[in-house]
């Protein structure tokens, strides 16, 4: 560990440790999109950079950062999360990526520091092996003193975590304070909601997924309202980055596309995904829609989703980024 655990508190009152299986499944299905995002952001970085992954969750994105850095000049990845169980899994995942990458001639290390290469931006110097050092910190992104706990970084990354914090604009200011001059701050927020079900399921009223997404939106409003000290942010993410003082602000998206019939992993993910929507949207759904969901999620039901061959996953992850002047 980079430092000692300080807290497992979360401002949104969500038990994120209990969602570990869902986060792992999402990382597996997001892998192609995450790899594309990591490669695109890595192109903006100097030799032997430091990358900080704030709210790293189960660590899926940082496995791709590690691979992108190892394919270039090496560097350092610092994992940060407020939930120790997730941080432990993130370390495990990145270490596993380290083992996988060794066969390709690159080496990622754990806590042991290794000298960085001195080659060009996209490759190590001749005769050296790119090394990626991995560290971990238990910390709260809403803590204004976070810049004092972490080194400055060439890339500060936060994926779908800022919207769970009381003051989103202040949190982006904290991210910006951690970035080096000319460093990049990048947020994965928004995008296109995932779709996974056909419009007519053969039970219940057609269009269930549209109503589930509407119910999820109502739950999200309530979640934000339930955060102690929540501050509205009535503008988009690019405006928020500009207000934090970042320059060259822009966005790009990566498609997540798993056509039917998909794999066993897709079925498991859809089950977790719909279970979460059923919990979040229960108060915003009709009795008929709740009954339809219950049938889809019941392994002994004739309508159990695990028996279907028309499940799919389609959506997009959007990244908003800017450079600290």
TrEMBL record:
Spans annotated as Disordered: 98-128
SUPFAM superfamilies per record: S-adenosyl-L-methionine-dependent methyltransferases (SSF53335)
InterPro entries linked to this entry: SAM-dependent_MTases_sf
Sorted UniProt keywords: Methyltransferase, Transferase
GO molecular function: methyltransferase activity
Record GO biological process: methylation
Claim: Transferase is one of the keywords in the record: yes
CDD domains: AdoMet_MTases
UniProt keyword Transferase, yes or no: yes
This protein's name: Methyltransferase family protein
């Amino acid at each position: 560990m980079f430092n000692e655990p300080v807290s497992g508190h979360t401002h949104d009152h969500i038990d994120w440790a209990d969602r570990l299986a869902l986060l792992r499944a999402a990382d597996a299905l997001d892998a192609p999109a995450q790899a594309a995002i990591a490669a695109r952001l890595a192109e903006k970085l100097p030799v032997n950079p430091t990358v900080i992954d704030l709210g790293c969750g189960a660590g899926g994105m940082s496995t791709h950062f590690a691979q992108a850095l190892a394919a270039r000049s090496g560097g350092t990845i610092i994992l940060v999360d407020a939930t120790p169980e997730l941080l432990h899994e993130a370390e495990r995942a990145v270490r596993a990526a380290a083992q996988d990458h060794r066969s390709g001639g690159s080496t990622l290390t754990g806590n042991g520091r290794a000298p960085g290469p001195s080659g060009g931006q996209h490759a190590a110097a001749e005769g050296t092996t790119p090394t990626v050092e991995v560290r971990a910190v238990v910390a709260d992104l809403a803590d204004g003193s976070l810049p004092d706990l972490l080194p400055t970084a060439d890339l500060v990354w936060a994926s779908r975590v800022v919207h769970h914090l009381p003051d989103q604009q202040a949190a982006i200011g904290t991210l910006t304070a951690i970035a080096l001059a000319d460093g990049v701050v990048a947020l994965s927020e928004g995008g296109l909601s995932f779709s996974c079900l056909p419009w007519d399921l053969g039970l219940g009223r057609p269009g269930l997924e549209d109503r589930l997404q509407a119910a999820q939106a109502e739950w999200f409003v309530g979640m934000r309202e339930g955060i102690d000290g929540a501050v509205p942010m009535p503008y988009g993410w690019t405006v928020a980055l500009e207000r934090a003082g970042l320059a060259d602000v822009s966005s790009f998206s990566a498609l997540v596309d798993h056509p039917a019939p998909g794999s066993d992993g897709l079925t498991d993910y859809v089950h977790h995904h719909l279970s979460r929507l059923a919990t979040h949207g229960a108060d915003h759904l009709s009795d008929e829609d709740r009954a339809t969901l219950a049938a889809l999620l019941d392994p002994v039901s004739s309508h159990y989703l695990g028996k279907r061959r028309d499940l799919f996953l389609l959506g997009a992850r959007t990244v908003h980024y800017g450079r600290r002047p």
